[in-house]
């Protein structure tokens, strides 16, 4: 596996996109609760999302052999999904940073900008997935690539934003809202997992012939990674259980520690999943 | 000038990899980077096995996947003879072409941070010489020339067992197996 | 933004540098080294760079690789920037270019390899008398000046001669320089062996046949196209005679010949010739031949089905049947009765043969009918099937088969060795190189130690002086030059013990070869790119000459310079041994080169040499008239005689003898082909084990039968697999094995049949542990359908690399497993070895291209 940069890039940007979606939903939830202006609560997550998108940007540069030529990468919008993706990713990162920056300057969040960023982000994930599914690598040219990428956005995005808003809500004694938010995030994570599972289920059926010389079919490249895959699901389920416990238990106060534990565990699981994804291409 | 291509006589190739190494020498390629590669295949079972080797570089395809996916337009097809080349002024080293070539032709240079590949030994051809892989093959199993002429001489087979389907990129190669 | 980009760029550069530093040492260090040091590249006399693109010069490719090809290098601004091969004339099957192989094309990576030895060096714990001798092979190295190094060698030489006598010096290797120097100071114990030939080496002359190098036994390549059936009996030109040979064979196929290969391996030759493959167990070809001969006798009907050529046997051979026995021989001891089992009650039927060789009886009968029933057959064998212990019987049986079927001495008919530089193309040389003009110095000591017992001789102090009697010897000083005996001769483990025992070991080497690694003093030697030049023959149609490409790299010296310097230190005048310069030697070879005239009989000088040439070269000589100018030969680097069907250069082996046996007797005592050869039997009585005068099946030490604990009940033993060592395309023996790009192209696995691998649960690429009573070694498995079950193919020549902690080799050195047991006349027995293998449970082996090179840092 030599695609570390791409692993970091895709996870960060997808997390940022999913996170932005959650933030948009949360700000609606928080403003429903009424008493607080949501900026104070959403500031930190917003900055983290912008920061993640920038980390993604740096990682994407690290992937390039000649970053100095980066500006050339949007010259082939006509036929290259890579070009398109770079353009849209740029737009997403730009609007994520503007959204965060503006809200800091204006000391309030801008739901319209947020939802616009989310939409760009969702297009971006589509472009990202098209790069891989359009390639000849056995296993990438599958519906699984889409479900895996969108799934990651939902799963980590949800947990990330939840774990970073809970402390602020707790501090402001908005325990009910915190609970709501954790519930929301749990359902989104479940949704993310569900679509990933659909992708996994459809994976074997969607595999085409091996289209490259001297590579092996996806199932045989994955043979050595069955343990990793099992580990990933184990950890992922553990994270979900943590999250589910927080969301559904009768305890009123949401545990901050548990929220971060869930974030760490789930991020790790998604990292492993992405690692295995890139094994296919190496 | 016409579209150029290679003829590979798989039936007479002994799999010695002299072509690979001669090309390495010509292009100063380090270990790991091979503009021409020889793929070894085995079929059947004891005591009636068969073996064969397919020597491939870049097939300078009619529908080059490498080029379609390339975000910078660095990968381009020379109009005059259909040779697919990398413009190093544009290439960003994203390696996306590696994922889009069925034949493993793009060979990334860590040192340059850019993609490199078979250029049909353009410099030698300008001097009227054959590409090095052609003039090195001890079995005379590689030929290079206008693809129409090669097809007229050797037929139009452009894939064989073990090779990716020619429908993907329409390679300019003639295989004799 | 720009700033960030340049930062990222910088980071990537340093990462790249790091990668370069860790994994691609060869690349990053070799280039600057070559850039710096090739700056002194020399122009040929008279060659000038004209087009600003550099000059092409013919560069040496001098290895014992079984071929000779034209290799050229492009020198620009004093740097070797590229190589190429023969483009001196248009290529055609009749007049083919002499194209080099992947090894030749990697030559500059050998010469400029990062592991070139730079300075004379000494083992750290060496002391006069040896010091800690057991550290040989794992000690550190200390850099020496030439003066210090030569002082040590001279002082130790004198001390050892004084104490033990000149007999205690063993010089290995064929290079004349050190041998002559040592001869001049009182001599040394020499060793000898039949490495390449196996059992062909010492019996051909007495039998009246050719062995394929000294005497031709097969026809020329154009005549090969007249054969209808070509049997490659243990020969794989696609691997072991690169260059033109496989291409020449292909022309015979195109002319209509059918091919059969008899080999434990389905080879790439079999593939391109579309041959029928008959898998045979190693070292059992004699049994197969007997099964064929039995069938021929059994089914022969002079009228309806003439399989045996009785006329041929009658006219040209002795010993086939009772009626043709030589005087004094027991009439019962004839081949026909042996085959029929008349007296030993064991008819050598296909069923009998099949038990041993593994070929189905029906297949054996088919083979017999094909060989006996086809008019023009080429029965061609390489030396490999004879590179076995007790192999003489095979040579006799194979030859007898050719005689029985009359496949000798006619167009398209041949029976003999087709191997090495003369494979598939024999006949008198159309070109010959001149001599160097150096005096020959005789070695005053006549000890000749057989290579199969050389390490025992060192360890036990005695050896058999062949054809005489046992002698005592006390070897205390081994001087290795221009070969790699510790690597390429049998039983490396015993060899290492021997190296740990003696008082002094010196090697001239240009990389840390096995010999060098186990030495006390290593003297860095120049490669042939760094010496004056030479003229070399290859196949009979060519003569190649190469000249100096660069001055010796680093502090290396040529073999001659080392020998001269040593002689001086030993108080001898080097002029006695080397009265002329290296340049003069090169010139003499050029001036003495001869080419055959169109008439196919007479020779004329190849080069026209003028007084002006002699002056320019600064040598002594006399002007002469030849076919081409000296300058043309040196600039082109090759002269090749064009061939075509019907020219005067064709050759049919033994034709003179066949045409008139009385007037042109063969080399045997009787002047006929000796199926019964008394002389061989006589010789063997004072050698290692008795050889019957006629071909007879003999159980081979460490052969197939020895893989059983109990042959009668067919209970397998501890080492149930037979091992062979096919010569491998990544290297020439051990030479070039250190070149990373060759390691990349040919990864050196151990070949295991799918059936055997399945039984052991081994998958392709798994690391396996090979073992026998002598050693253990690791290799990745290549699980194939193309090797006979029961046979393991470990490619010949990988550098031994023993882990001092576990004692396990990871290089895959073949000779770890080959026993050290002389048999017959003392011929090499490499292809009879036995092993076991199992899945390796430790860390899997990394591909050896990724291993660190043996670069010595001081
Ligand atoms: N690439 C390469 N080529 C070389 C060399 C090298 O080191 N590397 N060395 C050169 C030298 S010096 C020499 S002497 C020649 C030797 O050349 P050869 O004598 O031809 O030796 P190999 O190539 O080892 O074996 C040839 C074939 O014999 C088969 N064989 C082995 N044992 C037996 C047996 O018992 N019976 C039968 N029927 N077949 C058997 C092998 O499977 C192989 O296919 O090669 C020369 N060519
Ligand atoms: N098990 C097994 N063993 C075998 C064989 C087999 O089939 N199986 N094959 C046998 C055969 S056929 C042969 S011919 C032998 C070959 O046996 P060797 O002759 O020992 O083989 P090489 O590895 O070619 O060794 C040549 C050495 O000389 C060095 N050298 C090259 N040029 C020069 C020079 O100019 N000066 C000096 N001083 N050194 C130089 C090289 O670096 C190399 O170390 O191996 C035999 N050994
Ligand atoms: S050089 Fe020729 S014979 Fe050798 S591998 Fe290449 S194509 Fe095949
Ligand atoms: S072989 Fe690969 S690199 Fe070459 S043109 Fe076709 S797709 Fe592009
Ligand atoms: S590595 Fe270069 S040539 Fe290949 S796709 Fe990227 S920019 Fe294009
Ligand atoms: S044409 Fe030139 S660059 Fe291309 S594979 Fe052949 S030798 Fe290499
Ligand atoms: S076959 Fe031998 S002489 Fe010819 S290029 Fe290869 S190594 Fe050199
Ligand atoms: Mo040899």
TrEMBL record, chain A:
Alphabetical UniProt keywords: Membrane, Transmembrane, Transmembrane helix
Molecular function in Gene Ontology: dimethyl sulfoxide reductase activity
UniProt KW Membrane keyword: yes
Pfam families: DmsC
Tree of life domain: Bacteria
InterPro entries: DmsC
Residue intervals passing through the bilayer: 6-26, 46-66, 86-105, 112-137, 149-169, 181-203, 229-248, 255-277
Entry's Gene Ontology cellular component terms: dimethyl sulfoxide reductase complex; plasma membrane
GO BP annotations listed: anaerobic electron transport chain
Record's protein name: Cyclic nucleotide-binding protein
Annotated organism of origin: Cytobacillus praedii
Taxonomic classification: Bacteria, Bacillati, Bacillota, Bacilli, Bacillales
């Amino acid at each position: 596996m030599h695609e570390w940069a791409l692993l970091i890039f895709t996870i960060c940007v997808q997390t940022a996109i999913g996170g932005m979606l959650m933030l948009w939903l949360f700000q609606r939830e928080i403003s429903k609760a009424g008493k607080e202006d949501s900026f104070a609560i959403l500031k930190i997550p917003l900055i983290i999302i912008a920061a993640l998108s920038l980390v993604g940007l740096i990682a994407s540069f690290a992937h390039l052999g000649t970053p100095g030529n980066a500006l050339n990468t949007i010259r082939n919008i006509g036929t290259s999904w890579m070009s398109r993706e770079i353009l849209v990713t740029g737009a997403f990162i730009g609007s994520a940073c503007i959204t965060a920056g503006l809200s800091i300057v204006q000391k309030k969040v801008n739901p319209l900008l947020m939802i616009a960023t989310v939409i760009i982000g969702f297009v971006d994930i589509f472009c990202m997935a098209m790069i891989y599914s359009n390639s000849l690598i056995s296993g990438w040219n599958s519906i699984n690539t889409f479900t895996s990428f969108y799934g990651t956005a939902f799963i980590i995005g949800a947990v990330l934003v939840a774990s970073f808003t809970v402390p602020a809500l707790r501090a402001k004694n908005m325990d009910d809202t915190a609970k709501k938010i954790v519930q929301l995030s749990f359902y989104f994570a479940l949704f993310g997992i569900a679509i990933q599972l659909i992708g996994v289920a459809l994976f074997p059926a969607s595999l085409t012939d091996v289209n490259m010389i001297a590579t092996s079919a996806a199932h045989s490249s994955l043979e050595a990674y069955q343990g990793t895959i099992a580990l990933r699901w184990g950890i992922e389920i553990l994270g979900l259980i943590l999250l589910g416990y927080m969301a559904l238990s009768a305890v009123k106060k949401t545990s901050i520690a548990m929220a971060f534990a869930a974030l760490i565990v789930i991020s790790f699981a998604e990292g492993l999943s992405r690692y295995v994804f890139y094994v296919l291409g190496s | 000038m016409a579209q150029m291509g290679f003829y590979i006589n798989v039936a007479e190739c002994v799999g010695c990899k002299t072509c690979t190494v001669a090309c390495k020498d010509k292009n100063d390629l380090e270990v790991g980077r091979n503009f021409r590669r020889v793929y070894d295949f085995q079929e059947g079972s004891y005591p009636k096995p068969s073996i064969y080797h397919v020597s491939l570089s870049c097939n300078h395809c009619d529908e080059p996947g490498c080029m379609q996916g390339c975000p910078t337009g660095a990968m381009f097809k020379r109009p005059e003879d259909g040779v697919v080349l990398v413009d190093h002024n544009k290439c960003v080293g994203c390696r996306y072409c590696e994922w889009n070539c069925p034949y493993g032709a793009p060979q990334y240079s860590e040192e340059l941070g850019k993609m490199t590949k078979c250029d049909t030994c353009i410099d030698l051809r300008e001097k009227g010489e054959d590409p090095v892989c052609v003039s090195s093959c001890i079995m005379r199993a590689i030929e290079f020339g206008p693809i129409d002429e090669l097809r007229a001489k050797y037929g139009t087979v452009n894939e064989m067992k073990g090779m990716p389907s020619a429908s993907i990129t329409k390679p300019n190669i003639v295989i004799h197996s | 933004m720009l700033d960030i980009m340049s930062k990222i760029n910088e980071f990537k550069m340093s990462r790249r540098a790091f990668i370069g530093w860790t994994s691609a040492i060869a690349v990053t260090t070799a280039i600057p080294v070559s850039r710096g040091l090739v700056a002194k590249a020399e122009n040929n006399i008279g060659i000038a760079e004209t087009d600003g693109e550099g000059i092409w010069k013919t560069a040496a490719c001098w290895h014992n690789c079984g071929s000779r090809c034209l290799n050229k290098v492009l020198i620009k601004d004093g740097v070797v920037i590229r190589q190429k091969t023969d483009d001196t004339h248009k290529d055609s099957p009749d007049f083919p270019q002499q194209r080099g192989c992947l090894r030749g094309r990697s030559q500059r990576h050998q010469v400029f390899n990062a592991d070139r030895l730079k300075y004379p060096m000494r083992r750290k714990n060496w002391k006069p008398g040896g010091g800690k001798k057991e550290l040989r092979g794992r000690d550190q190295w200390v850099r020496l000046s030439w003066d210090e190094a030569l002082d040590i060698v001279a002082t130790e030489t004198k001390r050892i001669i004084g104490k033990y006598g000149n007999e205690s010096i063993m010089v290995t290797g064929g290079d004349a320089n050190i041998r002559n120097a040592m001869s001049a100071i009182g001599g040394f114990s020499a060793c000898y062996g039949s490495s390449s030939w196996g059992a062909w080496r010492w019996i051909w002359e007495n039998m009246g046949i050719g062995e394929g190098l000294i005497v031709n036994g097969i026809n020329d390549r154009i005549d090969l196209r007249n054969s209808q059936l070509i049997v490659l009996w243990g020969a794989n030109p696609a691997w072991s005679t690169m260059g033109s040979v496989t291409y020449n064979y292909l022309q015979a196929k195109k002319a209509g010949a059918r091919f059969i290969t008899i080999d434990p391996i389905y080879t790439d030759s079999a593939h391109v010739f579309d041959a029928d493959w008959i898998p045979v167990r190693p070292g059992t070809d004699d049994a197969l031949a007997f099964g064929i001969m039995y069938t021929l006798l059994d089914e022969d009907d002079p009228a309806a089905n003439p399989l045996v050529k009785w006329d041929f046997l009658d006219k040209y051979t002795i010993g086939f049947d009772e009626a043709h026995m030589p005087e004094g021989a027991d009439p019962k001891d004839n081949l026909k009765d042996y085959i029929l089992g008349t007296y030993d009650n064991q008819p050598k039927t296909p069923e009998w043969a099949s038990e041993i060789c593994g070929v189905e009886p029906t297949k054996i009968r088919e083979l017999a009918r094909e060989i006996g029933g086809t008019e023009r057959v080429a029965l061609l064998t390489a030396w490999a099937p004879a590179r076995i212990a007790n192999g003489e019987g095979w040579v006799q049986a194979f030859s007898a088969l050719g005689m029985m079927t009359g496949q000798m001495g006619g167009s398209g008919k041949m029976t003999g060795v087709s191997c090495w530089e003369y494979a598939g193309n024999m006949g008198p040389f159309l070109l010959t190189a001149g001599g160097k003009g150096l005096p020959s110095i005789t070695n005053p000591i006549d000890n000749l130690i057989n290579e199969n017992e050389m390490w025992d001789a060192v360890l036990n102090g005695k050896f058999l002086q062949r054809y005489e009697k046992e002698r005592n010897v006390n070897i205390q000083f081994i001087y290795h030059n221009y070969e790699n005996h510790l690597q390429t001769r049998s039983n490396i483990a015993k060899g290492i013990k021997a190296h740990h025992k003696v008082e002094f070991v010196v090697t001239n080497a240009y990389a840390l070869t096995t010999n060098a690694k186990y030495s006390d003093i290593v003297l860095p030697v120049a490669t042939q790119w760094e010496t004056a030049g030479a003229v070399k023959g290859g196949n009979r149609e060519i003569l190649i000459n190469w000249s100096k490409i660069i001055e010796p790299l680093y502090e290396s010296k040529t073999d001659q310079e080392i020998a001269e310097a040593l002689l001086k230190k030993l108080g001898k005048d080097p002029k006695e041994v080397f009265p002329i310069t290296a340049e003069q030697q090169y010139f003499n070879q050029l001036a003495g080169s001869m080419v055959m005239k169109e008439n196919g009989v007479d020779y004329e000088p190849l080069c026209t040499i003028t007084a002006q040439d002699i002056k320019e070269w600064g040598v002594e000589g006399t002007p002469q008239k030849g076919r081409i100018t000296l300058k043309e030969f040196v600039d082109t680097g090759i002269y090749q005689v064009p061939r075509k069907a019907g020219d005067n250069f064709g050759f049919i082996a033994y034709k003179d003898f066949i045409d008139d046996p009385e007037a042109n007797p063969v080399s045997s005592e009787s002047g006929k082909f000796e199926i019964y050869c008394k002389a061989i039997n006589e010789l063997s009585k004072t050698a290692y084990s008795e050889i019957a005068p006629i071909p007879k099946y003999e159980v081979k030490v460490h052969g197939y039968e020895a893989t059983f604990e109990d042959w009668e009940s067919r209970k397998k033993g501890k080492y149930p697999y037979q091992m062979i060592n096919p010569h491998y395309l990544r290297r020439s023996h051990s030479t070039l094995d250190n070149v990373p790009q060759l390691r990349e192209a040919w990864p050196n696995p151990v070949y295991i049949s799918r059936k055997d691998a399945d039984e052991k649960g081994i998958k392709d690429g798994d690391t396996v542990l090979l073992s026998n009573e002598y050693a253990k070694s690791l290799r990745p498995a290549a699980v194939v359908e193309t090797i006979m079950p029961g046979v393991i193919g470990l490619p010949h020549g990988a550098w031994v690399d023993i882990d001092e902690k576990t004692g396990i080799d990871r290089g895959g050195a073949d000779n770890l497993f080959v026993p050290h047991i002389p048999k017959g006349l003392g011929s090499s027995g490499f292809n009879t070895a036995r092993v076991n293998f199992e899945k390796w449970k430790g860390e899997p082996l990394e591909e050896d291209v990724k291993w660190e090179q043996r670069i010595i840092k001081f």
